TrEMBL record:
Required cofactor(s): FAD
GO terms of molecular function: oxidoreductase activity
Pyridine nucleotide-disulphide oxidoreductase dimerisation domain ranges (all copies): 348-454
Annotated FAD/NAD(P)-binding domain residues: 4-326
Swiss-Prot/TrEMBL keywords: Disulfide bond, FAD, Flavoprotein, NADP, Oxidoreductase, Redox-active center
Family: Belongs to the class-I pyridine nucleotide-disulfide oxidoreductase family.
Record's protein name: Dihydrolipoyl dehydrogenase family protein
InterPro entries assigned to the protein according to its UniProt record, in alphabetical order: FAD/NAD-binding_dom (IPR023753), Pyr_nuc-diS_OxRdtase (IPR001100), Pyr_nucl-diS_OxRdtase_dimer (IPR004099), Pyr_OxRdtase_I_AS (IPR012999)
Lineage: Bacteria, Pseudomonadati, Pseudomonadota, Alphaproteobacteria, Acetobacterales
EC number: 1.-.-.-
Species this chain originates from: Falsiroseomonas tokyonensis
Pfam family membership, one: Pyr_redox_2
UniProt-listed PANTHER family: MERCURIC REDUCTASE
């Protein structure tokens, strides 16, 4: 008999969910984690970054209060207290993901690295552990690019930037994706100089029309954006008498001096050390190769979930909510033997800047590339009454719909755009007609009215057509 019904490698969002529901259903479960319980999201990602952003938003709100007639002095940033707030947010959530809680569920928690020694066995903490099923949920880590001169230069990733005891004087960020842009705006609002170096354009996966508004917002706040700029090398040369802690040398000859360098060029799955070949588990540099139900294509005992999974070669999706989605698929497929597969058609993603940038489903470019015949509906957020009341001047809702009114994608640039994303995810996921949104009764006033107004524009030409006007002309004579 195997030692465990299920062995889970990795105690991040996906692994914890898998261990919890399996133990709750009476299976004998082992959870192996070499680092911090809660994984990247709790300790180095979603939670600390949003806590830092909350502090930055507060500082920005104080500076902007004068436009409402509220005069406040320039905010003083107490970095020690700010760090305590960030760590306090982690500490508040940590008990939910703690070793003690999972032991209380009946899960055997093993704090060690794990690697395969056979298709049905791993080794951890000097023990060889056999299993019926194994779930690999080892997550991902920041990519450290091969940049000449990087070795001697102190550099940061999302795992180390929240440990800084003092604010950066001039933070240079390599990469203009979600992590880079969030950290850029946060540190700019907290009084740091910030330069973002991006080889392409910022937020490259998102709709350029929506990104334009975010770009304007970042530039207004003093963030320097170097788009289409490639980093050639870095150096730690300091001018005589002091100066910057590093110099970023671009291919075009420009040199930017800074105090700190944050690497935010993407993430890679944590495959090293797992010895997947011993477990007969196929993988590429993008992650563990699985079918649409997250089962290994080469070892039917093994499943992969979260950032490390590459279902059907479509590539990993490094989001905590995807990890939760994967856990639900895993429960149906692995435990109940029910058909279940990954479907990212309604997947939302959000860059938590201010304004936030959210995308659900397909962008306009992705829809056209997929061969869809589409209509584009837009409504400026600034034209809502709530925006007028709050002085919001930037924002847009952009809908990608078929000629018959089926929603394929939605992009939102607005304060708290992530709070609107769920509505669009529900519509796309459940294939609800656009009329469901156009007829939705929303509380007044809200920014979400922009979404309703955009949907309503799909039907306006039909309502105002000559035929409808003739019908109305006939109906007015009826008693």
């Amino acid at each position: 008999m195997p030692d465990f019904d299920l062995v889970v490698i990795g105690a991040g969002a996906a692994g914890l969910s898998a261990a919890a529901f399996s133990a709750g259903l009476g299976l004998k479960v082992a959870l192996v984690e070499r680092g911090r319980m809660g994984g990247d999201c709790l300790n180095y990602g979603c939670v600390p970054s949003k806590a830092l952003l909350a502090a930055a938003h507060a500082a920005h709100a104080a500076r902007q209060a004068g436009r409402f007639g509220v005069r406040l002095p320039e905010p003083e940033i107490d970095w020690a207290t700010l760090r305590a707030h960030v760590q306090g947010a982690i500490a508040r959530i940590a008990p939910i993901d703690s070793e003690a809680r999972y032991r209380g569920m009946g899960v055997e928690v093993i704090r060690a690295s794990a690697h395969f020694v056979a298709p049905d066995m791993i080794e951890a903490a000097g023990r060889r552990i056999s299993f019926r099923r194994c779930v690999i949920a080892a997550g991902s880590q920041a990519i450290v690019p091969d940049i000449p001169g990087l070795g001697p230069v102190p550099w940061l990733t999302n795992e180390t930037i929240f440990e800084l005891e003092d604010p950066p004087g001039h933070l240079i960020i390599l990469g203009g994706g979600p992590i880079g842009l969030e950290m850029a705006q946060a540190h700019a609002r907290l009084g740091c100089l910030v330069t973002v170096i991006e080889a392409g354009r910022i937020a490259g996966r998102d709709d350029p029309e929506l990104v334009d508004g975010l770009r304007r917002a970042l530039l207004r706040e003093g963030v320097t954006l170097l788009e289409g700029a490639k980093l050639a090398r870095v150096s730690s040369d300091r001018p005589e008498g002091g100066g910057p802690g590093l110099v970023a040398h671009l291919e075009d000859g420009r040199a930017i001096g800074g105090t700190h360098l944050l690497l935010a060029v993407g993430r890679a799955p944590r495959l090293a050390g797992l010895d997947l070949s011993a477990g007969q588990v196929a993988a590429t540099k993008r992650g563990i190769t699985t079918d649409a139900g997250l089962r290994s294509t080469t070892n039917p005992r093994v499943f992969a979930v979260g950032d490390i999974a590459d279902p059907e070669g479509i590539g990993p999706r490094a989001f905590t909510h995807v990890a939760s989605q994967h856990a639900g698929i895993l429960a149906r497929r692995m435990i109940f033997r029910l058909p279940a597969k990954v479907d990212y058609a309604a997947l939302p993603r959000v860059t938590y800047t201010d304004p936030e940038l959210a995308q659900i489903g397909l962008t306009e470019a992705e829809a056209r590339e997929a061969g869809h015949e589409i209509n584009i509906l837009r409504f400026p957020v600034a034209e809502t009454d709530r925006a007028a009341a709050e002085g919001i001047e930037e924002g847009l809702v952009k809908l990608v719909v078929t000629p018959k009114g089926r929603l394929l994608g939605a992009g939102i640039l607005a304060p708290h755009a992530g709070e609107m994303a769920g509505t669009f995810a529900l519509m796309i996921g459940r294939k609800l007609p656009l009329s469901a949104l156009a007829g939705l009764v929303l509380p007044y006033p809200t920014l979400a009215e922009a979404a309703k107004r955009a949907a309503g524009d799909f039907y306006a030409p039909k309502l105002m057509s000559p035929l409808v006007k003739r019908v109305v002309g006939w109906l007015k004579h009826l008693p």
